[in-house]
Amino acid sequence: MTATPPAFGPTETFPCDENSTPFAVVTLSFAVTREQLRAALAIGQAENAGEPPLPELTVRDTRREIEGYFAAAAVLGSDAELQSVDAVLAPDHAAELDAAIDRAYTRRELTPLKTQQPLYRDGTVTLKTLDHGEVVLPEPAWCTGHDADTVGTLDEVTHNGRHVRAGSIGSHGYVDFLDAFVTHAPYLVQRPEPHPLVSVNLDLNTDADPDGVARIAHGLRAAALRLERLAAEARHLRNGGQA
Ligand SMILES: [Zn+2]
């Protein structure tokens, strides 16, 4: 195979058999030949007694027939082997496998999203985390608080400063095109953030008459000034709050 061929689907989730309880949907993609597609469609068509006739088959129906064939073949082909292996797993081995499954296929309802109920005291904030339980963390004075946060992992804890905005009046009224704030996630592991950063979000796409463009230019000058102030603030914080 010299190049990756184009990918299509999936069109739907195929149910597992009615006597089993589904736990997760495993999505996979694999390359097939034109001949395999043709044969899979022929089998699907035959199972439907040729209805609807091929010229009337929609693109979605065509893909669903083919995906359905492969899904059924995968389940039927593996089911006996999976059941016989599962029946003879040693309890310790099964527990280790389950732990790996729980890590790889974590289900939302196992970790419901709960809103924080932060406790602020003496420059600290007490937050709940999914991986370290309740933690007491330094709470910088510039942080606007964690009352709207959901409970997540420690590395997701992020201090955000007040939002600074700038915009202009356009044909649909006043629109902010700058939203910026100091942000710091001190507990990130993979891409550590040793110092506060500034989150800069600019959104401006418009067609305007000359007066409108002048108003945008005015708004951008205000945006630039506010960004410079935020940059100075972040620099100040990097110096441990010293000038
Ligand atoms: Zn904070």
Structure overview:
The protein has 243 residues and is α+β, with helices and mostly antiparallel strands. The chain folds into 2 domains: 1-110, no CATH class; 119-238, no CATH class. Helices cover 35% and strands 17% of the residues. It has 4 helices and 7 strands. Strands 4, 5, 6 and 7 form a 4-stranded antiparallel sheet that branches. A hairpin with a 3-residue loop joins β2 and β3 (133-138). α1 crosses α2 (59-87). It is flat, with a radius of gyration of 28 Å. It starts with 33 loop residues before the first helix and ends in a 5-residue tail after the last helix. The protein binds zinc ion. Zinc ion binds next to loops. Residues 125, 139, 143, 146, 159 line the site of zinc ion.
Helix/strand layout:
Elements: H1 34-47, H2 59-87, H3 91-104, E1 119-121, E2 124-129, E3 133-138, E4 159-160, E5 164-170, E6 173-184, E7 197-202, H4 210-238
Antiparallel strand pairs: 1-2, 2-3, 4-6, 5-6, 6-7
List descriptors:
about 240 residues, alpha+beta, 2 domains, four-stranded antiparallel sheet, 4 helices, 7 strands, binds zinc ion
The ligands found in this model are: zinc ion
Oligomer: single chain
Mean pLDDT across the residues is 89
Relative strand content: 15-25%
Overall number of domains:
2
What kind of sheet is the major sheet? Answer: 4 strands, antiparallel
Q: In terms of structural class, how would the helical and strand content be classed?
A: alpha+beta
Low-confidence regions? none
Distance between the termini: 61 Å
Number of strands: 7
Which descriptor suits the 3D outline? flat
Helix content: 25-40%
Tally of DSSP helical segments:
4
Order of helices and strands: HHHEEEEEEEH
Radius of gyration: 28 Å
